[in-house]
Protein backbone atom coordinates (compact mmCIF):
# COMPACT_ATOMS: atom_id res chain seq x y z
CA UNK A 1 0.00 0.00 0.00
CA UNK A 2 1.33 3.41 -0.97
CA UNK A 3 1.32 5.92 1.89
CA UNK A 4 -1.17 8.66 1.09
CA UNK A 5 0.36 12.14 0.77
CA UNK A 6 -1.26 14.54 3.21
CA UNK A 7 -1.15 18.22 2.28
CA UNK A 8 -1.00 20.65 5.16
CA UNK A 9 -1.38 24.36 5.71
CA UNK A 10 -0.72 26.62 8.67
CA UNK A 11 -2.34 29.95 9.50
CA UNK A 12 -0.91 32.99 11.27
CA UNK A 13 -3.64 35.32 12.55
CA UNK A 14 -2.11 38.77 13.00
CA UNK A 15 -3.87 41.21 15.27
CA UNK A 16 -3.89 42.83 18.70
CA UNK A 17 -7.69 42.98 18.45
CA UNK A 18 -7.95 39.17 18.59
CA UNK A 19 -5.45 38.86 21.47
CA UNK A 20 -7.22 41.57 23.49
CA UNK A 21 -10.54 39.74 23.15
CA UNK A 22 -12.13 42.75 21.45
CA UNK A 23 -12.76 40.88 18.21
CA UNK A 24 -13.96 37.29 17.89
CA UNK A 25 -11.85 35.58 15.20
CA UNK A 26 -13.84 34.02 12.35
CA UNK A 27 -11.00 33.31 9.94
CA UNK A 28 -9.70 30.12 11.57
CA UNK A 29 -12.96 28.23 11.03
CA UNK A 30 -13.58 29.79 7.61
CA UNK A 31 -10.11 28.99 6.25
CA UNK A 32 -10.13 25.51 7.85
CA UNK A 33 -13.37 24.60 6.09
CA UNK A 34 -12.22 26.03 2.76
CA UNK A 35 -8.88 24.19 2.99
CA UNK A 36 -10.61 20.90 3.61
CA UNK A 37 -12.57 21.25 0.38
CA UNK A 38 -9.23 21.78 -1.39
CA UNK A 39 -7.90 18.53 0.14
CA UNK A 40 -5.55 20.39 2.48
CA UNK A 41 -5.47 20.03 6.27
CA UNK A 42 -5.09 22.99 8.58
CA UNK A 43 -2.32 21.62 10.81
CA UNK A 44 -1.59 24.53 13.15
CA UNK A 45 -2.54 28.13 13.88
CA UNK A 46 -0.71 30.90 15.69
CA UNK A 47 -2.29 34.17 16.78
CA UNK A 48 0.35 36.90 17.15
CA UNK A 49 0.44 40.60 18.01
CA UNK A 50 1.05 43.47 15.58
CA UNK A 51 4.81 43.25 16.21
CA UNK A 52 7.33 42.50 13.49
CA UNK A 53 9.46 40.03 15.51
CA UNK A 54 6.35 38.03 16.47
CA UNK A 55 5.17 37.80 12.85
CA UNK A 56 8.63 36.91 11.52
CA UNK A 57 9.08 34.13 14.08
CA UNK A 58 5.69 32.56 13.37
CA UNK A 59 5.97 32.82 9.58
CA UNK A 60 9.45 31.32 9.46
CA UNK A 61 8.60 28.48 11.84
CA UNK A 62 5.46 27.45 9.99
CA UNK A 63 6.24 27.98 6.31
CA UNK A 64 9.05 25.42 6.18
CA UNK A 65 7.05 22.58 7.68
CA UNK A 66 3.76 23.00 5.84
CA UNK A 67 2.86 22.94 2.15
CA UNK A 68 1.06 26.27 2.46
CA UNK A 69 1.03 29.16 4.87
CA UNK A 70 -1.79 31.68 5.16
CA UNK A 71 -1.82 34.91 7.13
CA UNK A 72 -4.82 37.11 7.95
CA UNK A 73 -4.82 40.75 9.04
CA UNK A 74 -2.60 43.80 8.90
CA UNK A 75 -2.73 44.63 5.18
CA UNK A 76 -4.65 47.93 5.37
CA UNK A 77 -3.25 51.44 4.99
CA UNK A 78 -2.73 52.42 8.66
CA UNK A 79 0.32 52.45 10.94
CA UNK A 80 -0.70 49.17 12.62
CA UNK A 81 -0.71 47.34 9.26
CA UNK A 82 2.79 45.86 9.22
CA UNK A 83 2.20 42.42 7.71
CA UNK A 84 3.81 43.09 4.32
CA UNK A 85 6.98 44.53 5.86
CA UNK A 86 7.21 41.73 8.41
CA UNK A 87 6.79 39.00 5.80
CA UNK A 88 9.33 40.63 3.49
CA UNK A 89 11.73 40.67 6.45
CA UNK A 90 10.96 37.01 7.19
CA UNK A 91 11.72 36.07 3.57
CA UNK A 92 14.74 38.39 3.35
CA UNK A 93 13.36 40.30 0.35
CA UNK A 94 12.57 43.96 -0.24
CA UNK A 95 9.18 45.66 -0.46
CA UNK A 96 8.03 47.12 -3.80
CA UNK A 97 4.88 48.72 -5.19
CA UNK A 98 3.25 46.04 -7.38
CA UNK A 99 2.28 47.65 -10.71
CA UNK A 100 -0.85 45.51 -10.95
CA UNK A 101 -1.94 46.53 -7.46
CA UNK A 102 -1.23 50.18 -8.22
CA UNK A 103 -3.47 49.87 -11.30
CA UNK A 104 -6.24 48.16 -9.27
CA UNK A 105 -6.13 50.88 -6.60
CA UNK A 106 -6.03 53.71 -9.16
CA UNK A 107 -9.11 52.26 -10.85
CA UNK A 108 -10.89 51.64 -7.53
CA UNK A 109 -10.21 55.14 -6.15
CA UNK A 110 -10.78 57.00 -9.47
CA UNK A 111 -14.33 57.83 -8.33
CA UNK A 112 -13.46 57.83 -4.60
CA UNK A 113 -11.07 60.77 -4.25
CA UNK A 114 -8.01 59.41 -6.05
CA UNK A 115 -5.18 57.02 -5.22
CA UNK A 116 -3.31 59.00 -2.57
CA UNK A 117 0.08 57.98 -1.20
CA UNK A 118 -1.60 56.52 1.90
CA UNK A 119 -3.89 54.42 -0.29
CA UNK A 120 -1.01 53.24 -2.48
CA UNK A 121 0.57 51.79 0.67
CA UNK A 122 -1.86 48.94 0.00
CA UNK A 123 -0.02 48.23 -3.29
CA UNK A 124 3.18 47.40 -1.42
CA UNK A 125 4.17 43.72 -1.63
CA UNK A 126 7.21 41.59 -0.85
CA UNK A 127 9.42 41.53 -3.97
CA UNK A 128 8.44 38.68 -6.31
CA UNK A 129 4.80 38.51 -5.17
CA UNK A 130 1.64 38.00 -7.24
CA UNK A 131 -1.82 39.37 -6.42
CA UNK A 132 -4.94 37.59 -5.18
CA UNK A 133 -8.11 39.13 -6.51
CA UNK A 134 -10.30 41.06 -4.07
CA UNK A 135 -13.77 41.68 -5.50
CA UNK A 136 -15.03 43.23 -2.24
CA UNK A 137 -12.83 46.28 -1.73
CA UNK A 138 -9.73 47.92 -3.20
CA UNK A 139 -6.69 46.19 -1.80
CA UNK A 140 -5.76 42.79 -3.26
CA UNK A 141 -4.39 39.82 -1.33
CA UNK A 142 -0.82 38.74 -1.97
CA UNK A 143 0.76 35.42 -2.92
CA UNK A 144 4.47 34.80 -2.70
CA UNK A 145 5.53 31.19 -3.23
CA UNK A 146 3.55 29.00 -0.82
CA UNK A 147 2.57 32.00 1.30
CA UNK A 148 -0.86 33.65 1.06
CA UNK A 149 -1.41 37.05 2.66
CA UNK A 150 -5.12 37.63 3.25
CA UNK A 151 -7.31 40.37 4.71
CA UNK A 152 -8.40 40.40 8.35
CA UNK A 153 -12.04 41.31 7.71
CA UNK A 154 -13.73 37.90 7.28
CA UNK A 155 -15.99 38.70 4.31
CA UNK A 156 -13.04 40.13 2.38
CA UNK A 157 -11.00 37.03 3.19
CA UNK A 158 -13.95 34.95 1.94
CA UNK A 159 -13.78 36.70 -1.43
CA UNK A 160 -10.03 36.07 -1.66
CA UNK A 161 -10.56 32.38 -0.85
CA UNK A 162 -13.13 32.23 -3.66
CA UNK A 163 -10.53 33.61 -6.03
CA UNK A 164 -8.07 30.87 -4.96
CA UNK A 165 -10.56 27.98 -5.14
CA UNK A 166 -9.26 25.11 -7.24
CA UNK A 167 -5.81 26.63 -7.76
CA UNK A 168 -3.94 24.85 -4.92
CA UNK A 169 -2.74 21.27 -5.18
CA UNK A 170 -4.15 19.02 -2.45
CA UNK A 171 -5.02 15.41 -1.68
CA UNK A 172 -8.30 13.72 -0.90
CA UNK A 173 -10.53 15.91 1.28
CA UNK A 174 -11.25 14.54 4.74
CA UNK A 175 -14.80 13.21 4.92
CA UNK A 176 -16.59 13.33 8.24
CA UNK A 177 -19.74 11.83 9.68
CA UNK A 178 -21.38 12.69 12.99
CA UNK A 179 -23.59 10.68 15.31
CA UNK A 180 -24.84 11.82 18.68
CA UNK A 181 -26.07 10.03 21.75
CA UNK A 182 -27.35 10.88 25.25
CA UNK A 183 -24.37 8.98 26.62
CA UNK A 184 -22.04 10.32 29.32
CA UNK A 185 -18.59 10.22 27.66
CA UNK A 186 -17.10 8.36 30.57
CA UNK A 187 -19.57 5.46 30.04
CA UNK A 188 -18.54 4.78 26.46
CA UNK A 189 -14.88 5.83 26.40
CA UNK A 190 -13.58 2.26 25.93
CA UNK A 191 -16.08 1.55 23.20
CA UNK A 192 -14.98 4.68 21.27
CA UNK A 193 -11.30 3.87 21.58
CA UNK A 194 -11.99 0.33 20.31
CA UNK A 195 -13.95 1.68 17.32
CA UNK A 196 -11.06 3.97 16.38
CA UNK A 197 -8.50 1.16 16.70
CA UNK A 198 -10.63 -1.13 14.50
CA UNK A 199 -10.65 1.30 11.54
CA UNK A 200 -7.25 2.28 10.22
CA UNK A 201 -6.83 5.90 9.28
CA UNK A 202 -10.04 6.91 11.05
CA UNK A 203 -10.02 9.52 13.84
CA UNK A 204 -12.97 9.76 16.21
CA UNK A 205 -13.51 12.98 18.13
CA UNK A 206 -15.84 13.02 21.11
CA UNK A 207 -17.55 16.31 21.99
CA UNK A 208 -19.61 16.28 25.19
CA UNK A 209 -22.49 18.63 25.90
CA UNK A 210 -24.89 19.37 28.74
CA UNK A 211 -28.46 20.15 27.71
CA UNK A 212 -31.89 19.98 29.27
CA UNK A 213 -30.19 18.78 32.44
CA UNK A 214 -28.75 15.74 30.65
CA UNK A 215 -25.32 14.72 29.44
CA UNK A 216 -24.58 13.61 25.92
CA UNK A 217 -21.87 13.68 23.30
CA UNK A 218 -21.45 13.95 19.56
CA UNK A 219 -18.93 11.70 17.86
CA UNK A 220 -17.23 12.92 14.71
CA UNK A 221 -15.67 10.21 12.55
CA UNK A 222 -13.06 11.56 10.12
CA UNK A 223 -10.98 10.01 7.33
CA UNK A 224 -10.12 10.72 3.69
CA UNK A 225 -11.75 7.33 2.95
CA UNK A 226 -15.53 7.81 2.78
CA UNK A 227 -16.22 4.05 2.95
CA UNK A 228 -14.19 3.77 6.15
CA UNK A 229 -16.18 6.62 7.67
CA UNK A 230 -19.47 4.91 6.73
CA UNK A 231 -18.38 1.54 8.12
CA UNK A 232 -16.97 2.96 11.34
CA UNK A 233 -20.04 5.11 11.93
CA UNK A 234 -22.41 2.15 11.37
CA UNK A 235 -20.45 -0.15 13.70
CA UNK A 236 -20.17 2.54 16.36
CA UNK A 237 -23.93 3.14 16.22
CA UNK A 238 -24.58 -0.60 16.73
CA UNK A 239 -22.11 -0.76 19.64
CA UNK A 240 -23.59 2.32 21.33
CA UNK A 241 -27.15 1.02 20.95
CA UNK A 242 -26.07 -2.33 22.42
CA UNK A 243 -24.63 -0.43 25.42
CA UNK A 244 -28.01 1.23 25.95
CA UNK A 245 -27.32 4.48 24.11
CA UNK A 246 -29.27 4.75 20.85
CA UNK A 247 -27.75 7.24 18.42
CA UNK A 248 -29.01 10.10 16.30
CA UNK A 249 -27.55 10.39 12.79
CA UNK A 250 -26.03 13.79 12.13
CA UNK A 251 -25.57 14.50 15.83
CA UNK A 252 -27.71 15.95 18.58
CA UNK B 1 10.82 56.75 35.48
CA UNK B 2 10.65 53.10 36.45
CA UNK B 3 9.78 50.82 33.55
CA UNK B 4 6.36 49.28 34.19
CA UNK B 5 6.37 45.50 34.52
CA UNK B 6 4.06 43.90 31.98
CA UNK B 7 2.67 40.48 32.89
CA UNK B 8 1.99 38.16 29.97
CA UNK B 9 0.20 34.90 29.36
CA UNK B 10 0.05 32.53 26.42
CA UNK B 11 -2.72 30.10 25.48
CA UNK B 12 -2.53 26.74 23.75
CA UNK B 13 -5.88 25.67 22.31
CA UNK B 14 -5.83 21.89 21.89
CA UNK B 15 -8.31 20.32 19.52
CA UNK B 16 -8.81 18.80 16.08
CA UNK B 17 -12.37 20.17 16.15
CA UNK B 18 -11.07 23.77 16.02
CA UNK B 19 -8.52 23.02 13.27
CA UNK B 20 -11.12 21.22 11.15
CA UNK B 21 -13.45 24.22 11.32
CA UNK B 22 -16.19 22.11 12.92
CA UNK B 23 -16.19 24.13 16.15
CA UNK B 24 -15.87 27.90 16.45
CA UNK B 25 -13.39 28.65 19.25
CA UNK B 26 -14.74 30.89 22.01
CA UNK B 27 -11.97 30.45 24.57
CA UNK B 28 -9.42 32.84 23.04
CA UNK B 29 -11.69 35.87 23.44
CA UNK B 30 -13.05 34.73 26.82
CA UNK B 31 -9.63 34.09 28.34
CA UNK B 32 -8.18 37.30 26.79
CA UNK B 33 -10.88 39.43 28.40
CA UNK B 34 -10.55 37.68 31.76
CA UNK B 35 -6.75 38.04 31.71
CA UNK B 36 -7.00 41.75 31.03
CA UNK B 37 -9.10 42.24 34.16
CA UNK B 38 -6.33 40.44 36.10
CA UNK B 39 -3.75 42.88 34.68
CA UNK B 40 -2.22 40.21 32.43
CA UNK B 41 -1.83 40.49 28.67
CA UNK B 42 -2.53 37.59 26.32
CA UNK B 43 0.66 37.73 24.26
CA UNK B 44 0.29 34.75 21.92
CA UNK B 45 -1.95 31.81 21.09
CA UNK B 46 -1.29 28.52 19.34
CA UNK B 47 -3.98 26.14 18.15
CA UNK B 48 -2.64 22.59 17.89
CA UNK B 49 -3.97 19.16 16.99
CA UNK B 50 -4.68 16.29 19.42
CA UNK B 51 -1.12 15.00 18.98
CA UNK B 52 1.35 14.72 21.84
CA UNK B 53 4.37 16.14 19.93
CA UNK B 54 2.39 19.19 18.85
CA UNK B 55 1.21 19.89 22.41
CA UNK B 56 4.67 19.35 23.92
CA UNK B 57 6.31 21.71 21.42
CA UNK B 58 3.80 24.50 21.97
CA UNK B 59 3.76 24.19 25.76
CA UNK B 60 7.54 24.19 26.09
CA UNK B 61 8.01 27.11 23.68
CA UNK B 62 5.44 29.32 25.39
CA UNK B 63 5.77 28.56 29.09
CA UNK B 64 9.35 29.79 29.39
CA UNK B 65 8.71 33.17 27.84
CA UNK B 66 5.44 34.11 29.52
CA UNK B 67 4.46 34.55 33.14
CA UNK B 68 1.52 32.21 32.72
CA UNK B 69 0.45 29.54 30.27
CA UNK B 70 -3.12 28.34 29.80
CA UNK B 71 -4.33 25.37 27.80
CA UNK B 72 -7.90 24.53 26.81
CA UNK B 73 -9.30 21.20 25.70
CA UNK B 74 -8.49 17.50 25.91
CA UNK B 75 -9.12 16.82 29.62
CA UNK B 76 -12.19 14.58 29.32
CA UNK B 77 -12.31 10.79 29.73
CA UNK B 78 -12.05 9.64 26.09
CA UNK B 79 -9.14 8.38 23.94
CA UNK B 80 -8.71 11.79 22.25
CA UNK B 81 -8.15 13.50 25.62
CA UNK B 82 -4.36 13.47 25.84
CA UNK B 83 -3.60 16.88 27.35
CA UNK B 84 -2.55 15.66 30.82
CA UNK B 85 -0.15 13.07 29.42
CA UNK B 86 1.29 15.53 26.91
CA UNK B 87 1.87 18.22 29.53
CA UNK B 88 3.44 15.74 31.94
CA UNK B 89 5.76 14.72 29.10
CA UNK B 90 6.55 18.39 28.36
CA UNK B 91 7.43 18.97 32.02
CA UNK B 92 9.28 15.66 32.37
CA UNK B 93 7.12 14.48 35.27
CA UNK B 94 4.90 11.44 35.78
CA UNK B 95 1.11 11.22 35.83
CA UNK B 96 -0.67 10.38 39.09
CA UNK B 97 -4.26 10.16 40.32
CA UNK B 98 -4.80 13.28 42.44
CA UNK B 99 -6.51 12.24 45.71
CA UNK B 100 -8.55 15.46 45.80
CA UNK B 101 -9.77 14.91 42.26
CA UNK B 102 -10.61 11.28 43.02
CA UNK B 103 -12.69 12.50 45.98
CA UNK B 104 -14.44 15.14 43.83
CA UNK B 105 -15.30 12.58 41.16
CA UNK B 106 -16.44 9.96 43.67
CA UNK B 107 -18.78 12.52 45.21
CA UNK B 108 -20.01 13.76 41.82
CA UNK B 109 -20.68 10.27 40.46
CA UNK B 110 -22.11 8.83 43.71
CA UNK B 111 -25.63 9.46 42.39
CA UNK B 112 -24.67 9.08 38.72
CA UNK B 113 -23.62 5.42 38.46
CA UNK B 114 -20.36 5.49 40.42
CA UNK B 115 -16.78 6.56 39.75
CA UNK B 116 -15.73 3.94 37.20
CA UNK B 117 -12.15 3.51 36.00
CA UNK B 118 -12.97 5.51 32.85
CA UNK B 119 -14.33 8.35 34.96
CA UNK B 120 -11.33 8.33 37.27
CA UNK B 121 -9.16 8.98 34.20
CA UNK B 122 -10.30 12.58 34.80
CA UNK B 123 -8.49 12.55 38.17
CA UNK B 124 -5.13 12.01 36.45
CA UNK B 125 -2.78 15.02 36.76
CA UNK B 126 0.91 15.75 36.16
CA UNK B 127 2.81 14.96 39.39
CA UNK B 128 2.90 17.99 41.70
CA UNK B 129 -0.30 19.58 40.39
CA UNK B 130 -3.10 21.31 42.30
CA UNK B 131 -6.76 21.41 41.31
CA UNK B 132 -8.86 24.27 39.92
CA UNK B 133 -12.45 24.13 41.09
CA UNK B 134 -15.09 23.19 38.53
CA UNK B 135 -18.60 24.01 39.76
CA UNK B 136 -20.17 23.07 36.42
CA UNK B 137 -19.35 19.39 35.99
CA UNK B 138 -17.26 16.68 37.61
CA UNK B 139 -13.69 17.04 36.37
CA UNK B 140 -11.58 19.81 37.91
CA UNK B 141 -9.05 21.97 36.08
CA UNK B 142 -5.38 21.56 36.91
CA UNK B 143 -2.66 23.98 37.95
CA UNK B 144 1.00 23.08 37.93
CA UNK B 145 3.36 25.99 38.56
CA UNK B 146 2.54 28.74 36.06
CA UNK B 147 0.57 26.36 33.88
CA UNK B 148 -3.25 26.20 33.93
CA UNK B 149 -5.02 23.28 32.27
CA UNK B 150 -8.62 24.22 31.50
CA UNK B 151 -11.66 22.56 29.91
CA UNK B 152 -12.48 22.92 26.22
CA UNK B 153 -16.23 23.53 26.67
CA UNK B 154 -16.44 27.33 27.05
CA UNK B 155 -18.96 27.53 29.90
CA UNK B 156 -16.93 25.06 31.96
CA UNK B 157 -13.79 27.10 31.28
CA UNK B 158 -15.72 30.20 32.39
CA UNK B 159 -16.43 28.56 35.76
CA UNK B 160 -12.76 27.65 36.18
CA UNK B 161 -11.73 31.24 35.38
CA UNK B 162 -14.17 32.42 38.06
CA UNK B 163 -12.44 30.15 40.56
CA UNK B 164 -9.06 31.69 39.63
CA UNK B 165 -10.20 35.33 39.70
CA UNK B 166 -7.98 37.46 41.91
CA UNK B 167 -5.44 34.70 42.58
CA UNK B 168 -2.88 35.57 39.86
CA UNK B 169 -0.37 38.38 40.21
CA UNK B 170 -0.62 40.98 37.46
CA UNK B 171 0.04 44.61 36.67
CA UNK B 172 -2.27 47.45 35.76
CA UNK B 173 -5.07 46.31 33.46
CA UNK B 174 -5.00 47.80 29.98
CA UNK B 175 -7.73 50.42 29.64
CA UNK B 176 -9.25 50.99 26.24
CA UNK B 177 -11.47 53.59 24.66
CA UNK B 178 -13.15 53.40 21.27
CA UNK B 179 -14.27 56.10 18.87
CA UNK B 180 -15.70 55.53 15.43
CA UNK B 181 -15.97 57.63 12.32
CA UNK B 182 -17.30 57.31 8.77
CA UNK B 183 -13.76 57.88 7.55
CA UNK B 184 -12.03 55.71 4.96
CA UNK B 185 -8.90 54.45 6.78
CA UNK B 186 -6.65 55.56 3.95
CA UNK B 187 -7.81 59.19 4.40
CA UNK B 188 -6.75 59.43 8.03
CA UNK B 189 -3.81 57.03 8.26
CA UNK B 190 -1.23 59.80 8.82
CA UNK B 191 -3.37 61.47 11.46
CA UNK B 192 -3.71 58.19 13.38
CA UNK B 193 0.01 57.49 13.28
CA UNK B 194 0.71 61.01 14.55
CA UNK B 195 -1.76 60.57 17.43
CA UNK B 196 -0.08 57.34 18.48
CA UNK B 197 3.41 58.91 18.32
CA UNK B 198 2.22 61.88 20.43
CA UNK B 199 1.11 59.69 23.36
CA UNK B 200 3.76 57.46 24.84
CA UNK B 201 2.67 53.96 25.77
CA UNK B 202 -0.56 54.28 23.83
CA UNK B 203 -1.42 51.86 21.02
CA UNK B 204 -4.11 52.76 18.50
CA UNK B 205 -5.77 50.00 16.51
CA UNK B 206 -7.79 50.86 13.42
CA UNK B 207 -10.62 48.51 12.43
CA UNK B 208 -12.34 49.30 9.14
CA UNK B 209 -15.88 48.28 8.26
CA UNK B 210 -18.24 48.52 5.31
CA UNK B 211 -21.87 49.21 6.16
CA UNK B 212 -24.88 50.72 4.43
CA UNK B 213 -22.67 51.09 1.35
CA UNK B 214 -20.23 53.34 3.22
CA UNK B 215 -16.76 52.96 4.62
CA UNK B 216 -15.81 53.73 8.20
CA UNK B 217 -13.48 52.61 10.93
CA UNK B 218 -13.38 52.21 14.69
CA UNK B 219 -10.27 53.32 16.52
CA UNK B 220 -9.33 51.56 19.75
CA UNK B 221 -6.96 53.44 22.03
CA UNK B 222 -5.22 51.21 24.57
CA UNK B 223 -2.85 51.85 27.48
CA UNK B 224 -2.53 50.89 31.15
CA UNK B 225 -2.72 54.66 31.84
CA UNK B 226 -6.39 55.70 31.81
CA UNK B 227 -5.52 59.43 31.63
CA UNK B 228 -3.37 58.85 28.56
CA UNK B 229 -6.26 57.00 26.91
CA UNK B 230 -8.65 59.88 27.70
CA UNK B 231 -6.26 62.54 26.38
CA UNK B 232 -5.35 60.64 23.23
CA UNK B 233 -9.00 59.88 22.47
CA UNK B 234 -10.02 63.53 22.94
CA UNK B 235 -7.21 64.85 20.73
CA UNK B 236 -7.87 62.24 18.07
CA UNK B 237 -11.57 63.17 18.02
CA UNK B 238 -10.66 66.84 17.50
CA UNK B 239 -8.19 66.00 14.73
CA UNK B 240 -10.66 63.73 12.94
CA UNK B 241 -13.44 66.34 13.15
CA UNK B 242 -11.06 68.97 11.75
CA UNK B 243 -10.34 66.63 8.83
CA UNK B 244 -14.07 66.45 8.11
CA UNK B 245 -14.80 63.19 9.95
CA UNK B 246 -16.87 63.74 13.11
CA UNK B 247 -16.58 60.88 15.59
CA UNK B 248 -18.96 58.76 17.61
CA UNK B 249 -17.90 57.96 21.18
CA UNK B 250 -17.88 54.23 21.88
CA UNK B 251 -17.56 53.38 18.20
CA UNK B 252 -19.98 52.84 15.36
Automatic annotation (TrEMBL), chains A, B:
SMART domains to which the protein is assigned, alphabetical = MoCF_biosynth
Classification via CDD domains: cinA
Tell me which Pfam families the record gives. FLAD1_M (PF24102), MoCF_biosynth (PF00994)
InterPro entries this protein is in?
CinA (IPR050101), FLAD1_M (IPR056596), MoaB/Mog-like_dom_sf (IPR036425), MoaB/Mog_dom (IPR001453)
Q: Which SUPFAM superfamilies match?
A: Molybdenum cofactor biosynthesis proteins
Q: Per the database record, which ranges form the MoaB/Mog domain?
A: 10-172
Segments passing through the bilayer:
none
Q: Report what the protein is called.
A: Molybdopterin-binding protein
Top-level taxonomy: Bacteria, Pseudomonadati, Pseudomonadota, Alphaproteobacteria, Sphingomonadales
Amino acid sequence: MVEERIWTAALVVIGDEILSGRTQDKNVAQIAQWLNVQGIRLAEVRIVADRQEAIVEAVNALRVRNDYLFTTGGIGPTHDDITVDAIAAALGVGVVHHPGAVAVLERYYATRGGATEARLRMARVPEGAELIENRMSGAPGIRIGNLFIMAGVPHITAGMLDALTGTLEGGRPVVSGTIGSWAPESEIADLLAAAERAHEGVAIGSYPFFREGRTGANFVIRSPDADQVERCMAELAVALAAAGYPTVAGGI
